[in-house]
Amino acid sequence: MNQIPLVDLKAAHAEVAHEIRAGFDRVLADTAFIGGEEVRAFEREYAEFAGTAHCVGVANGTDALELALRASGVGVGDEVVLPANTFIATAGAVARIGARPVLVDCLPDTLLMDPEAALKAVGAATRAVVPVHLYGQCADAGELAARLPSHVKVVEDAAQSQGAARNGRTPGSGGIAATSFYPGKNLGAYGDAGAVVTDDEETADLVRALANHGGVAKYRHDVAGFNSRLDGLQAVVLRAKLARLAEGNAARRAAAARYDELLAGPVSDGRLIPPVTARGNVHVWHLYVVRVGDAERDALVGKLNAEGIGAGVHYPAPVHLTPAFSHLGHGRGEFPHAEQAADRMLSLPLFPQITAAQQQRVVDALTDALC
Predict the structure, then answer these.
(1) Which pTM was predicted?
(2) Three-class secondary structure of residue 14 per DSSP
């Protein structure tokens, strides 16, 4: 049986294998394993792609978010508002600082953080709000920034939105955003990697220092930092893939449009709820997530996987229903939109190289399983 993976990393590698081998040879010859010209070049190139003045490469996306929060003044005992429906790392980055996650619900259609709920959750101890740009489209960070009190910063979780924009604004422009280059992302490394982007030079310098044991010169430690640096080999991979990212995002948009057409029947009769793109968004379709109606979602995943189709779930439990954050004191029913989405969402295979025939097979198997 021919497998259709959720994400085809082998096909992605085949497109850049020759460039990466040549780049690895350069790094090995120069022994530039931490930092070096490949990292500096990637930071310049990604900042230009992201529409920001500065990019600081770091070890992973979770570190990137923690560093962005620290550089924005978040410390021990502060509160940080974030959506309940996000990957656990968003809340984990807050907790590692010693701050307290304050959870809010998502919008029922786009599943992006509800901005009104976020604004209502802001209090005297709040130091940051983290809009999560989920599945490849942007939450309205610009609206939040305009309406928040001056003591509260917007720190964007852009781990899933490389190349996305909302109303012409890209993540981090005019503020600060963290992103992840985990292998399955639109721009994925061959291991863990991440970055912080911002237009503010002083903030970028602080992030770079925090990620380098608190300083930018050897044995000089101006602040209490830790070790989170992008290595040269990962920078080679990211540079090769970045050159193809705009084309890959366009292919993802075409594939998402094809799914929209193929799924028109199950959507029209209520068996599926399609993904919704917010007005003003340029979506990059990191994931194509539908929601099932009355069907049992986990059983559907099992049926699709049995047919060789790599369907997945992002994410099976909102943050407040995970044991790691049970101490926040929330119970089922407090964030109903996030909870319903977690129970019903289903991610279908989507990657730039997916073919029309593969998508047809996915939809045929899904339609059969829904009956």
Answers:
(1) 0.97
(2) helix
Q: Are 19 and 240 in contact (CB under 8 A)?
A: yes
Give tens-digit pLDDT for 124-171.
Answer: 999 999 999 999 999 999 999 999 999 999 999 999 999 999 999 999
Residue 121 within a domain:
yes
Confidence of residue 293 (pLDDT cuts 50, 70, 90): confident
Residue (of 159, 75, 168) closest to 125 by Cα position: 75
Domain boundary among 216, 242, 268: 242
The DSSP code sequence of 88-130 is HHHHHHHHHHT-EEEEE-B-TTT--B-HHHHHHH--TTEEEE-
Residue 1's pLDDT is: 66
> Which among 112, 107, 66, 61 is positioned nearest to 86, based on CA atoms?
112
Closest CA to 238 of 195, 200, 207, 176: 195
User: How far apart (Å, rounded) are the C-alpha atoms in residues 219 and 95?
Assistant: 29
The overall average pLDDT reported for the chain is 97
Residue 68 — φ and ψ, nearest 5°?
Answer: -65, -40
> For position 185, which CATH number holds?
3.40.640.10
Same-domain check for residues 221 and 308 = no
How far is the C-alpha of 215 from the C-alpha of 210, rounded, in Å?
7
In a domain, 3, yes or no: no
Residue type at position 56: V
Say which residues have a Cβ less than 8 Å from residue 295's Cβ, sequence separation at least 6. Answer: 271, 369, 370
Which whole-number Å values give the CA distances from 258 to 99, 161, 354, 359, in the listed order? Answer: 43, 20, 11, 8
The confidence band for 295, taking pLDDT boundaries of 50, 70 and 90, is confident
